[in-house]
Amino acid sequence: xxxxxxxxxxxxxxxxxxxxxxxxxxxxxxxxxxxxxxxxxxxxxxxxxxxxxxxxxxxxxxxxxxxxxxxxxxxxxxxxxxxxxxxxxxxxxxxxxxxxxxxxxxxxxxxxxxxxxxxxxxxxxxxxxxxxxxxxxxxxxxxxxxxxxxxxxxxxxxxxxxxxxxxxxxxxxxxxxxxxxxxxxxxxxxxxxxxxxxxxxxxxxxxxxxxxxxxxxxxxxxxxxxxxxxxxxxxxxxxxxxxxxxxxxxxxxxxxxxxxxxxxxxxxxxxxxxxxxxxxxxxxxxxxxxxxxxxxxxxxxxxxxxxxxxxxxxxxxxxxxxxxxxxxxxxxxxxxxxxxxxxxxxxxxxxxxxxxxxxxxxxxxxxxxxxxxxxxxxxxxxxxxxxxxxxxxxxxxxxxxxxxxxxxxxxxxxxxxxxxxxxxxxxxxxxxxxxxxxxxxxxxxxxxxxxxxxxxxxxxxxxxxxxxxxxxxxxxxxxxxxxxxxxxxxxxxxxxxxxxxxxxxxxxxxxxxxxxxxxxxxxxxxxxxxxxxxxxxxxxxxxxxxxxxxxxxxxxxxxxxxxxxxxxxxxxxxxxxxxxxxxxxxxxxxxxxxxxxxxxxxxxxxxxxxxxxxxxxxxxxxxxxxxxxxxxxxxxxxxxxxxxxxxxxxxxxxxxxxxxxxxxxxxxxxxxxxxxxxxxxxxxxxxxxxxxxxxxxxxxxxxxxxxxxxxxxxxxxxxxxxxxxxxxxxxxxxxxxxxxxxxxxxxxxxxxxxx
Length: 755
Hints:
Blueprint: E1 3-11, E2 15-23, H1 30-39, H2 41-50, E3 56-58, E4 64-67, H3 69-75, H4 79-82, H5 87-90, H6 98-109, E5 113-117, H7 123-136, E6 140-144, E7 150-153, H8 155-161, H9 165-168, H10 182-195, E8 197-205, E9 211-222, E10 228-237, H11 239-261, E11 265-274, E12 277-286, H12 288-294, H13 304-307, H14 311-314, H15 316-328, E13 332-338, E14 343-350, E15 356-363, H16 365-387, E16 391-396, E17 401-404, H17 406-412, H18 430-434, H19 438-445, E18 451-458, H20 459-465, E19 475-486, E20 492-501, H21 503-566, H22 572-603, E21 608-612, H23 613-625, E22 633-637, E23 642-646, H24 647-663, E24 671-679, E25 683-690, H25 722-732, E26 737-741, E27 747-754
Parallel strand pairs: 22-24
Antiparallel strand pairs: 1-2, 2-5, 3-4, 6-7, 6-10, 8-9, 9-10, 11-12, 11-15, 13-14, 14-15, 16-17, 16-20, 18-19, 19-20, 21-23, 24-25, 25-27, 26-27
């Protein structure tokens, strides 16, 4: 059924002016009818303002379907006289009039039309007409007096408020609003007085406490003097619409935030064509990331040719892709290096509408550099693998050979095509099994550990077990290294095995082993002979020393008798001879004592204990100082450590070293003797330094030998055995001895003792 609106206004002596407008086809749905009422809101407002216009409805068969009271007056007939009747039946000859053609145009072309016709009014019918319109209107309508009292309302208004019409009769206009909104409502009423009408939206609370939103059209009805007679409010509930609007606002805010804060650059552009060729594009909208990633600022509304001069020449491929997407509508994704910006970009571009495109991109220059570096490294390692002098094969996690390098091909005599791929499996190699290599492989493949082994490998057996062609079937010694390679998840992906032919080395090792065995036997024999000789020498020294003491005692006894009994009658020459004999026998006694001491140190069992070296040195210094005859000697003793050693033997060492220092400084006015100690990771280093006669370093190797003297007995007395005793004692403790000196500048003697 088609609707049209026929509004007529009466002008005295002039006739009637009518307006016609088409509306959509009615479905019968109350909701849809309310929607149509909303769309014609201005009509109802005008009706309620002036009570002048009539409405009549014709279907497409030109039959009356509806007339309001004013329309009845205009037609001079009651509703029951017109409903269901054809327009031509009521108005014979109407088909030939301009009115008929206008209405027909409105029906068929769906356009509003205006026309003029003539009617006469009857006031009583008009009142009945507007009363029904007021009652059945789907919008809420309320009338308020200037005093603020609610004069009346229609049923729809009462339903919206959640009240009965009777309840509303005692209320004021402001009672219908939240108290906090009263001032706002008053301002709207005042505005309607000034302008005639006002439209506003406001939130209200029903009697049951539920809140709802409404749109109110407020009209001020005035008398002939311009004074307000009443206010008419047409109220439409818009709660659902407001909810939809709020969701839309939140959604827009969310996506706008995403647009502004996304890490990728975004550019919405329109492609510019000339003779169907892309020549430029204009930036319509970009996000902040666009500027951050490209360095281009303030590009909205600008052509790319102005933003990046020469880009069409330097990067024509970019134009081709963007143009293709803008015309075809197909999405494309690609990577490109823009010469103009000196950057790599990953770009995803799509077409939102014809001749437009959206580019979403990210800078990937860093990633590209990494990829280039990976390619470079891959090429480097590939060349290193192929040119390596070490035989290498790469196996997968199941033991299948994937690659071999030329060196492996050479030493095993096998072509890559005969072993690479699913051809050779190391676990199926019979030569591997016979060589006892499986445990090493299991350590690498199953435990993920590196392994190394040497083996005599039979290439012929290995080749026959898997039908592999080799140039020569031979046995060779190989040194092998195997390394596991893991993927990013820590799972074994490959195993690298390297081989080195060591046949010559193994042969040399066998020869060296045999020579060493022979040498060890010889050393053992010589050592036994030397130990036997040393034992005999020590026994001889001990025996000689003891045997020499008896005649020496006899000589000393007789010399003593001669001196006591015949001293007065002996000539001076005889006395000198006796003194010489006495001195020589004393020297002989000292020499015998030293020999005995040397012999004892060789045979004496060590008794190590906790030893304070400072106490030992102080004891020896005190002993020596008693026999220095009042010499001016400055002793400087540093901090010496506590250690584990044989106390008696170390006292002999210090006695010999310090006695030598005193002896070789006897010609010095002020003798200075310094005793100190140092320490490293493994041992203590002791030193005795003096400012005495010193010695020539070319003879230093003789110092610690038995009976070796670098000075004559006339200069410095001694037997040449003391330093030999020092070396023997320090050697028994696992230490070393040495000396440093210059003639006339003193000497430094060193020895070490382990921790």
